[in-house]
């Protein structure tokens, strides 16, 4: 039977120098690790109820585009997100986003990207809101109605 002799370090400074060299060799944190950390941090909103996409006009192959007064087609996309407590109806245009909550309620609406919150607006008493600047990257909306309703849409892309 062969025995494996354990390595014994006689010089602690040599061991520390080797450990420091090994740690320095790794360099910066890989981008995948950073992305995974940010994704894990996103779980802090786990209390928000996820609103499912129940309608997207861009999937209507048979639908004729809307016409404007000049008989040109309008660049309009309608989206509807539904949760147990609230429905969020959206119209995504080239210049902004118009939305309404059903049933009508005053709420705070946040526009979120992977980088964080980019805009925040309040609805009026009918639940209507307008977001003037839409992010170019994927975004989602977080809707807070009072202390009890906290809803998060799935990611929206243009």
- Oligomeric status of the shown chains? single chain
Unreliable stretches covering 5 or more consecutive residues: 1-5
How much is the radius of gyration in Å?
A: 26 Å
Number of strands: 9
Q: Class by helix and strand content?
A: alpha+beta
Kindly report the average pLDDT value.
82
Number of helices: 2
In what range is the share of β-strand residues? 35-45%
Task: Spell out the helices and strands N to C.
Answer: HHEEEEEEEEE
Share of helix, binned = 10-25%
Largest sheet: 9 strands, mixed
Give the domain tally: 2
Order of strands in the sheet with most strands: 6-5-8-9-1-2-3-4-7
The global form is elongated
Q: Determine the N-to-C terminus distance.
A: 68 Å
Characterise this structure.
It is a single chain. The chain is of the alpha+beta class and 158 residues long. The chain has 2 domains: 30 residues, no CATH class; 107 residues, no CATH class. Helix content is 16%, strand content 35%. The radius of gyration is 26 Å and the shape is elongated.
Outline:
This protein is α+β, with helices and mostly antiparallel strands.
Show the helix and strand layout.
Layout: H1 12-26, H2 31-41, E1 49-56, E2 76-82, E3 87-93, E4 97-102, E5 108-113, E6 116-122, E7 128-131, E8 140-145, E9 149-153
